[in-house]
Amino acid sequence: FVTMKTLSSFLLLIIAIGTNVNALQQPRQQAIVVGSGPVGVATSLILATNHNYDVTLLESSPASSTQTKYDPTKAFLYNVNGRGQRLTKMFPEMHQRMVERSVISKGFGGTKLTIVPADPAESIPEQKMNVPAAADNNDDNGNDNKSMPSGEKAGNVGFWIPRHEMVKLMVEEIEEHNQRGLGGTITLCTGQECVSVVPCTTKDGESVTVVVTTKDASSSSSQEISTNEYNANLVIGADGMNSKVRQCLHNAPPGTWSSNCVKSSKFQPKTYTSPASFLRIKVLQLPPQFEIPDADGKPPLKTFSEDIYAIRSVNTGPRTFLSLGLLPMKDNEAVRPTNIITRPDHGVWKITNGKSMREYFQQAFPRFNFQEGGLISNQEWDRFAKAEGTRFPPCQYSPGLAVWDESGRSGVALVGDSIHAFSPDIGQGVNAGLMDVVCLDRALSGFDDVESSGKEVDSTANDKTKKQTTTLEANLERYQKQHAPEIAALIRLARFGAPYQYKQPHRADRVLRLVWTANVAMRLLLNKVSFGVIQPPCIILSQNEDLTFREVMRRADRTTALLKTIVLAGLTLWAKRRFGLALFRALP
To answer: What is the per-residue pLDDT for 340?
Structure first.
């Protein structure tokens, strides 16, 4: 016989099935993500997986210039640290692919470093680890802490991975996501350049319309340009430091968006210049496993892709200094890109043909055979000489992060370089961008920002105790209010963290680098002798991903205030002893 308890359970099951069927029949909300770099692809995955959006991912580049293949003009390497891994660990299979395709960097070390002297008669020193091994001084995570400042734990494991590989593994995750059929779908549309972002009314209610200009990549004729309109409830601008989405929000006439939003003027980036701003960079491609000639009849050093190399030149002048830097990568059979980073007035930028460039490098690096038929092909010298390269951006951030319409049911948010851009010397570029996505994810779920408490928060946890109102308007407002201060702190870190690591050769640079180095050394010494009471430099603090950027800068500011107080007190005592009490009595 059927008991009442069994019958009740059966009826509840029928109701639950009916509810789920109705939910599946309801149309999903639409989202548009502008920009298909790592941050844009990550945002698409979050919206489709965690928030059930059907996502249209718009990319301005034509289909032929895929982001998943190696491109010497974008031969960047990322070091995905614990901040960036908060995003990748949300997708275990994608995270595992990243681990398999990258070089592990543990804490402050974990990779071998070789500094190659400029003089070919000088022997190449033995390779050394970035941090000396200390088997008896590891933390609970196995991190080597021998050279760490007192009171600070070493950074967790990071992963060196080329940009195109990072995008590729994310695209593979998108393909698998679409095949599983769980959550929303993600559709990539290439050749789509955003020209307008405005709220409008459709038959379905309030939505955001993005007007996109489609260009034929094989033709420059303006007659072939067509315009497409995409409707969405949520638009995400992940289109870089010159973000068109951000420009549209800045140029929006009064009354376009809700009066409760930040003003359109807040989307004008605040810009600051650091010593690393506007340095020029381009990539020279070296053969896989190339050999570095040694001195005194020793066999040449065969390079290994997972090691770091710094190759010095004989030129040391303000406009001639040059150094080749090679970062670790997994594929030992792949072309080895090396970065040329100089001031804009360096002589290398005046050379525009391969033969002259080859001769210039032969003079600067006499250890190598750069003659015709030597280490590098004539085709590569020609490509390198003609390449314009790129420039490090100024430190900039947008105080405005999000807007919404009067109905509160549609809006726009910014992530990645569209809200913060800076030179790569602090190693936080891609990690900060992925953290933007994590914080947006939590805001859209109605949770507090991961930075709001200053403590580690598991982004995948079902943190019901902190969940707030989940309307789109409230969630975007939460993202704006909670995350904007973190972006401002990030830019302060970028300005003062490690701006002289490129050994800028101008005489003023050399003097200021000595001042910066003395400041860092003094803080490290004070940190040691005070047993961690006085905080280390901000660049060291930033390696601890459990600290927010706000907390990093607050700690550094407290040390600065303490140093200022000590200096002022010392000057006061000196003046008192030198001039006596009469001076102080005469002061008003």
So the answer is: 92
By DSSP bridging, strand 226-232 and strand 77-80 are: unpaired
Look at residue 354 and give its three-state secondary structure: helix
With 90 as the cut, is the pLDDT of residue 14 above it?
no
Reference 294, options 100, 527, 124, 435; nearest CA is: 124
User: Which of 304, 346, 277, 318 lies closest to 495 in space, CA to CA?
Assistant: 277
pTM: 0.85
Question: In the structure encoding, which two tokens stand for residue 426, read together?
Answer: 């602090």
Predicted pLDDT at 177: 94
Q: How far, in Å, CA of 487 to CA of 250, rounded?
A: 18
Say if residue 139's pLDDT is above 80. no
Average of per-residue pLDDT across 570-587: 71
Question: In this model, does residue 485 exceed pLDDT 60?
Answer: yes
Q: Tokens 């680098």 map to which residue? A: 513
Best CA proximity match to 293, nearest among 381, 376, 366: 366
Least reliable range by pLDDT among 63-77, 422-436, 560-574: 63-77
3-state secondary structure 425-487: HHCCHHHHHHHHHHHHHHHHCCCCCCCCCCCCCCCCCCCHHHCCCCCHHHHHHHHHHHHHHHH
The closest alpha carbon to 165, from 104, 97, 105, 111, belongs to: 97
pLDDT for 187-210, tens place per residue? 998 888 888 888 887 555 545 565
pLDDT at site 193 = 86
3-class SS of residue 54: strand
Residue 46 and residue 52: Cα distance in Å, rounded? 9
Q: What angle do CA 188, 392, 430 make, to 5 degrees?
A: 45
So what's the pLDDT on residue 284?
A: 95
Distance CA 134, CA 143 (A): 10
Question: What is the Cα–Cα distance from 473 to 208, expressed in whole angstroms?
Answer: 13
DSSP string computed for 80-140: E-HHHHHHHTTSHHHHHHHHHTSEEEETT--SEEEEE-S-TTSPPPPPEESS---TT-B-T
Query: Cα separation of 138 and 144, whole Å?
Result: 5
